[in-house]
Amino acid sequence: MSIMDYMESLSQFQMAGIILQLLALPFLVMKLRLFWWAKQSVHWPKTNGVVEKGLDFPLSKIINFLYTYEITGTSYKREKPFFANSFKNIKRMKAKELKARYPEGKQVIVFYNPSNPKISTLEPGRKDGVISALILLFFLFMLGFISYYNPNLLVELIDYVPNH
């Protein structure tokens, strides 16, 4: 059986399941990696760093931040103070608090990954929105899995939902 024959034998639900899994998987892996780093960061070694560019939340809602640190003679730069799903939805009050916490020129303690020092955080263990993103992506991945391996279950569920 050729690939084309196999693709033609799939139902619409199975094709949608494959596509959903292929779309969700890279994002799921990225968020798992963020979660892992945040969880591990409480055990990472520390070094001193400096905030080069204080937090600024312009109207575009793009975080504008930079801190630097040095490990064994190599300088590193990082643009995010902690691991988060997104910095676009930070509430105005939290933004003011973060801005006050990290003014330009402030000396900070940087927690860095010993196996890859360019990965670091100023707030170990913090993972804003990562868990909810993981739950959503896992749900989408499983929906794709069910669509591929048991498309009849989805048809039964759709038929079960009463039409209004």
How would you characterize the overall build of this protein?
The chain has 164 residues and is of the alpha+beta class. The chain has one domain. The protein has five helices and seven strands, in the order H-H-E-E-E-E-H-E-E-E-H-H. It has helices spanning 3-9, 12-40, 92-101, 130-149, 151-160; strands at residues 46-56, 64-71, 74-78, 83-84, 107-113, 116-121, 127-128. The strands form two sheets. Strands 3-2-1-5-6 form a five-stranded antiparallel beta sheet. A two-stranded parallel sheet has the order 4-7. Helix 2 packs antiparallel against helix 4 and helix 4 crosses helix 5. The two termini are 44 Å apart.
How would you summarize this macromolecular structure in one to three sentences?
This protein has five helices and seven strands.
Class derived from helix and strand content: alpha+beta
What is the tally of helical segments? 5
Main sheet: strand order: 3-2-1-5-6
Which ranges are low-confidence, i.e. pLDDT below 50, for 5 or more consecutive residues?
none
| Fraction of residues in β-strands | 25-35%
Distance linking N and C termini: 44 Å
Radius of gyration from CA coordinates: 22 Å
The multimeric state of the shown protein is single chain
Number of strands: 7
Sheet with the most strands, sense and barrel status = 5 strands, antiparallel
Query: What helical percentage do the residues reach?
Result: 40-55%
Write down the overall mean pLDDT: 84
Please indicate the count of domains: 1
Task: Give the helices and strands as they follow along the chain.
Answer: HHEEEEHEEEHH
What form results from the Cα inertia axes?
elongated
